[in-house]
């Protein structure tokens, strides 16, 4: 009987091997006029804002319809999938949704079509920060699509006026935190890209920078970097930073603030409506937003996020794809839709003026003016990894802050030439 | 040795002593039973608590409940499951079943033959062969991806079931061969010899005598292969990244779940999908492992 | 003990009578031929070839490719010409490489040891008959069938301060499991043990089935207690299964990626070798250096794997030793 079972298994194997010819699905190649837009995340899902933008385009341009090829949720995996296709010089993607930090890398690999010839259509209407993130080597490689900036969330029932300096923020955080028995400031402190974003906000807040404007020289200031890292280390020790700061990403930070366990939070605008929707949250109705503090109380600094749209160098449909990305960056209706229908921060300056009644948009309009992109260098991924590896242990007290800053500086220098 | 000296004492034992020892034995049994039950409880808790967390989380609705450390924070409902199946998850399940099933069958059939040859048949350089087989599975998978991707692309194997179960079979064969070789070599040789004396060919000796006896090993290997192929992510996400209607498997599909807005973590749908894929696996494991445990008994009756 | 009955066979192989059976290539029409009987040697070659063929076809090409690649120099993805062993030299002099080896070894030794002990316990339990053993057996396998990526996220959730299930459960206010050296490693090892002890259990359980009951019976008659029976009978007879389980757990643990990647992202000295390889192949691609790191990892793991194969070789091949000569 046992032998018969095994015989049956063998038979089934043969059957399956014959039958296991993959069903040929309807996708692949398809229309040569079709524009395939490779982008991921929540807004690329059915019903998301990217889909609505595509629908709008398809109404206006039925001859060159856009179809979204949905990529995974995590940015790293999105980049991986695009890289596989582009490395093989495949024409599967026409328009690429590229994170603002990928521009230089993609360009260096020869994966992008230059948008220099449509620069004058884009530059006048788009915010300078997001525009800068699409420039590498003095040339435009992508059309900004949406942007993002962080700001300070604070509890209005516990804090009268939002702090403008980091010292002030920590004083309040410790004092109020102890009174209420909750944590102080929560942000993105885990070892990942988000930590670099946060550290840069501290560092830029001291007046330092990484490169000069055309990124030909390193202007990294070791003293200021040390100051920023040491401040974080102290804040972690003194209880200014909420427990779990050094393992928190966006969602952990939001969760901590939303459940009433933190006085302050640094986060992207997405958290605003989620906290507003949570009727049981202690923060609901009791929180406000303000620009991020700096060390001297002057101005504000935020690191830019967001996605640009680039045209693949291997696209069979470059002209139409180019038209599409320019349209998405500069059409007031599209850019307005991003803000009103999905609270995705648009890149078009005029939209912020129009929507200044909305508290988030009003603050974003203010913050974005001073927001900075991370360098568009092709080496950004390596720089980021190196910064994480040097600065994360330093602020956790496992390494010397000055040594860490020196390491970062010499690495930055090695990426130039 | 000790029992031979103890034996003559037994008949002389008095009634009362016998009773006392029986009572002691009963008490010992009771203590043992309690100990066993407690141990079982600990084991069940250890294994199942996280799964219980998965189930509870998958039933939670809304951002607040999902991010709460309280397992019983409601509201509860089946929304996450509905959301999962709205994303063509049944197609992903189908793909995973075909890919993992085919891998299992191919691996067991091919691997059994190879293992039997190594364990039993005369051959030169067996240790070298085993080393080579092992080496196949040891290269860091992430480094295999770029060259294989190019190769698959030129062979037209991207986005196909074949493109997945062929490498799965190749990379799981080493484990299969090792498990089965260990089993075949632990089966007493005299059974085969007897069969051969009765006029069986080497193949018949293998197929009718050794194979049934090794069935616990075969089924253990089958479960392991199936689960590994079912859960594989790296190759699946590279060779068949999109299109549930073609070949996208379950773990890859899970990586495409998103929250309602950017950054929001899709815990609800991930846990729901995980429960959906785990339950058939548990049933499968139950059926297969019955074979593992009863295999020898059934086999020895036959032999 | 069991092998005492084994008689070496040499007759059949040498006697192999029919000459046309020496061509193992024809797999199309087996039945008539099988009746005559293939010689054992031919049968051996026939049985081995599909495995070897498939593994060679799929695995050989990328390994050779990687080795060739590892001799090239790159600046990110831009080729810079032939570099000989420069990539290897660079890898071997990188402190980060040795740090990741240290973590990987620590992780492997601790997790495999714990998995073996717990897995053995599970296997012995699953092998007994008691009420509710069906449920128990299914329960023991649950952790292992949960996809690794999901399990990793789950344990991140459990251990992390927010939302903090474990702290809640144990009444530890804000213990930062993942945010400090040592405990971060512990959490990763713990998650791995939870996840893969059932794998070990399954292999050992299957191994237990091959131990005939009468061996225990005679030992019990000899007055051996349960511990002595385990030590003197179970363990030695289970040796091949144990070695196979340890071998594959070890080489898997040496290539651990998902758990530390999701739970700690390599912070607090929890960066594994595979994470390092992944970084240079995918995250900050340098194909040459990535391939060199992969090759080094491969050689290292193969070296450790071969120790097991040597140990195993005796057990697995011993039966045919006689016929080989």
Word description of this protein:
The complex is a heterotrimer of chains A (417), B (303) and C (325). Chain A has 417 residues and is an alpha/beta fold. Helices cover 46% and strands 13% of the residues of chain A. Chain A has 17 helices and eleven strands. In chain A, the strands form three sheets. Chain A has a five-stranded mixed β-sheet. In chain A, strand 1, helix 2 and strand 2 form a beta-alpha-beta unit. Chain A is globular, with a radius of gyration of 24 Å. With 303 residues, chain B is mainly alpha-helical. Chain B has a domain of 169 residues: MetI-like (MetI-like fold). Chain B contains 14 helices and no strands. Chain B is flat. Chain C folds into two domains: 44 residues, no CATH class; 228 residues, Orthogonal Bundle (MetI-like fold). Chain C has a two-stranded antiparallel ribbon with strand order 1-2. In chain C, strand 1 and strand 2 form a beta hairpin. In chain C, helix 4 packs across helix 15 and helix 7 crosses helix 9. The radius of gyration of chain C is 25 Å and the shape is flat. The N terminus and C terminus of chain C are likely disordered. Chains in contact: A-B, A-C, B-C. At the B-C interface, helix 1, helix 2, helix 5, helix 6 and helix 7 of B face helix 2, helix 3, helix 5, helix 6 and helix 7 of C.
Structural class based on helices, strands and sheet pairing of chain B: mainly alpha
Question: How many domains of chain C?
Answer: 2
Instruction: Examine the secondary-structure arrangement and name the CATH architecture of one domain in chain B.
Output: Orthogonal Bundle
Give the structural class of chain C: mainly alpha
Estimate the helix proportion of chain C, in percent.
Answer: over 70%
What is the CATH fold-level name of the largest domain in chain C?
A: MetI-like fold
Please indicate the percent range of residues of chain C in DSSP E strands (runs of 2 or more).
Answer: under 5%
Q: Uncertain spans of chain B, ≥5 residues at pLDDT below 50? A: 1-13, 295-303
Order of strands, main sheet of chain C, comes to: 1-2
Count of DSSP H/I helices of chain C: 16
Beta content of chain B: under 5%
Shape of chain B: flat
- Work out the helicity level of chain B: over 70%
**Radius of gyration of CA atoms of chain B, rounded to a whole number:** 26 Å
Oligomer: heterotrimer
Pair with the biggest interface: B-C, 113 and 122 residues
């Amino acid at each position: 009987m046992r032998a018969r079972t095994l015989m049956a298994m063998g038979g089934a194997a043969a059957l399956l091997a014959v039958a296991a010819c993959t069903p040929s699905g309807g996708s692949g190649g398809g229309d040569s006029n079709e524009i395939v837009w490779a982008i991921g995340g929540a807004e690329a899902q059915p019903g998301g804002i990217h889909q609505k933008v595509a629908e709008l385009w398809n109404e206006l341009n039925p001859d060159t319809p856009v179809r979204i090829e949905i990529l995974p949720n995590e940015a790293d995996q999105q980049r991986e999938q695009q890289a596989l296709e582009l490395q093989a010089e495949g024409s599967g993607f026409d328009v690429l949704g590229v994170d603002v930090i990928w521009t230089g890398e993609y360009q260096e690999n020869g994966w992008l079509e230059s948008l220099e010839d449509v620069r004058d259509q884009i530059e006048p209407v788009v915010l300078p920060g997001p525009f800068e993130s699409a420039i590498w080597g003095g040339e435009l490689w992508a059309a900004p699509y949406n942007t993002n900036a962080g700001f300070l969330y604070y509890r209005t029932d516990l804090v009268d006026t939002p702090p403008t300096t980091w010292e002030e923020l920590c004083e309040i955080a410790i004092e109020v935190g102890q009174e209420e028995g909750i944590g102080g400031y929560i942000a993105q402190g885990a070892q990942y890209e988000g930590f670099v974003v946060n550290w840069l906000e501290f560092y830029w807040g001291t007046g330092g920078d990484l490169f000069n404007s055309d990124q030909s020289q390193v202007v990294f200031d070791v003293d200021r970097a040390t100051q920023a890292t040491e401040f974080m280390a102290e804040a972690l020790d003194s209880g200014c930073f909420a427990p779990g700061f050094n393992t928190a990403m966006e969602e952990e930070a939001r969760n901590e603030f939303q459940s009433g366990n933190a006085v302050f939070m640094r986060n992207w605008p997405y958290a605003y409506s989620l906290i507003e929707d949570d009727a049981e949250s202690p923060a609901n109705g009791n929180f406000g937003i303000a620009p991020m503090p700096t060390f001297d109380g002057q101005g504000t600094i935020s690191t830019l996020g967001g996605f640009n749209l680039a045209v693949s160098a291997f696209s069979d449909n470059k002209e139409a794809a180019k038209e599409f990305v320019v349209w998405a960056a500069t059409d007031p209706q599209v850019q307005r839709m991003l803000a009103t229908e999905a609270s995705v921060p648009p890149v078009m300056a005029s939209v912020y003026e129009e929507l200044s009644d909305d508290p988030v948009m009003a603050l974003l309009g203010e913050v974005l003016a001073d927001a900075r992109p991370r360098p568009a260098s092709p080496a950004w991924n390596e720089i980021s990894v190196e910064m994480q590896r040097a600065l994360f242990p330093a602020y956790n007290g496992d390494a010397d802050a000055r040594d860490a800053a020196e390491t970062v500086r010499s690495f930055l220098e090695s990426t130039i030439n | 040795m000790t029992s031979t000296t103890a034996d003559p004492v037994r008949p002389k034992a008095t009634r009362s002593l016998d009773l006392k020892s029986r009572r002691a034995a009963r008490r010992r049994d009771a203590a043992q039973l309690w100990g066993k039950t407690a141990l079982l409880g600990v084991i069940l808790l250890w294994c199942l608590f996280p799964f219980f967390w998965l189930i509870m989380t998958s039933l939670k609705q809304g951002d607040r409940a999902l991010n709460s450390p309280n397992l019983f924070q409601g509201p509860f409902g089946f929304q996450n499951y509905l959301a999962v199946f709205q994303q063509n998850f049944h197609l992903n399940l189908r793909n995973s079943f075909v890919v993992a099933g085919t891998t299992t069958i191919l691996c067991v059939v091919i691997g059994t033959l190879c293992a039997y040859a190594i364990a039993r048949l005369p051959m030169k350089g067996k240790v070298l062969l085993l080393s080579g087989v092992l080496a196949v599975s040891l290269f860091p998978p992430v480094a295999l991806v770029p060259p294989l991707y190019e190769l698959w692309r030129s062979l037209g194997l991207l986005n196909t079931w074949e493109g997945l179960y062929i490498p799965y079979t190749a990379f799981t064969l080493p484990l299969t061969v090792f498990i089965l070789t260990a089993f075949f070599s632990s089966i007493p040789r005299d059974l085969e010899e007897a069969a051969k004396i009765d006029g069986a060919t080497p193949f018949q000796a293998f197929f009718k005598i050794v194979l049934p006896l090794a069935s616990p090993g075969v089924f253990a290997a089958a479960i392991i292969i199936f689960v590994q192929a079912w859960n594989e992510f790296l190759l699946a996400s590279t060779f068949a990244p999109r299109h549930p209607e073609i070949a996208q498997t379950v773990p890859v599909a899970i990586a495409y779940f998103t929250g309602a807005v950017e950054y929001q973590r899709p815990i609800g749908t991930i846990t729901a999908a995980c429960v959906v894929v785990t339950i058939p696996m548990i049933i499968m494991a139950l059926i297969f492992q019955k074979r593992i445990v009863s295999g020898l008994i059934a086999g020895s009756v036959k032999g | 003990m069991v092998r005492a009955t084994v008689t070496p066979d040499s007759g059949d192989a040498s006697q192999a009578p029919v000459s046309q059976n020496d061509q193992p290539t024809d797999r199309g029409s087996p039945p008539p031929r099988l009746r005559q009987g293939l010689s054992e040697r031919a049968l051996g070659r026939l049985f081995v070839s599909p495995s070897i063929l498939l593994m060679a076809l799929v695995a050989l090409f990328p390994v050779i490719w990687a080795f060739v690649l590892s001799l090239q120099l790159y600046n990110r993805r831009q080729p810079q010409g032939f570099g000989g062993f420069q990539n290897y030299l660079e890898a071997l002099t990188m402190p980060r490489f040795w740090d990741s080896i240290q973590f990987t070894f620590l992780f492997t030794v601790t997790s495999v040891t714990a998995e073996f002990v717990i897995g053995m316990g599970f296997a012995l339990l699953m092998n007994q008959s008691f009420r509710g053993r069906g449920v128990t057996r299914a329960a023991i396998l649950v952790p292992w069938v949960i996809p690794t990526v999901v399990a990793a996220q789950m344990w991140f959730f459990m251990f992390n301060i927010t939302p903090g299930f474990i702290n809640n459960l144990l009444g530890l206010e804000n213990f930062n499991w993942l945010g400090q050296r040592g405990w971060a490693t512990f959490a990763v090892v713990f998650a791995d043990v939870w996840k893969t002890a059932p794998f070990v259990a399954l292999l050992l359980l299957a191994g237990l089935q091959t131990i005939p009951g009468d061996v225990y019976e005679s030992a019990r008659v000899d007055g051996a207690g349960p511990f002595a029976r385990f030590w003197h009978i179970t363990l030695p007879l289970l040796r091949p299964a144990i070695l196979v389980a340890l071998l594959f757990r070890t080489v898997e643990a040496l290539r651990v990626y998902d758990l530390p990647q999701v739970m700690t992202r390599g912070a607090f000295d929890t960066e594994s070798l595979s994470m390092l390889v992944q970084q240079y192949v995918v995250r900050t691609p340098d194909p040459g250096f990535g391939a060199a790191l992969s090759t080094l990892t491969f050689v290292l793991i193969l070296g450790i794997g071969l120790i097991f194969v040597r140990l195993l070789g005796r057990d697995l091949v011993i039966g045919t030793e006689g016929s080989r000569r």
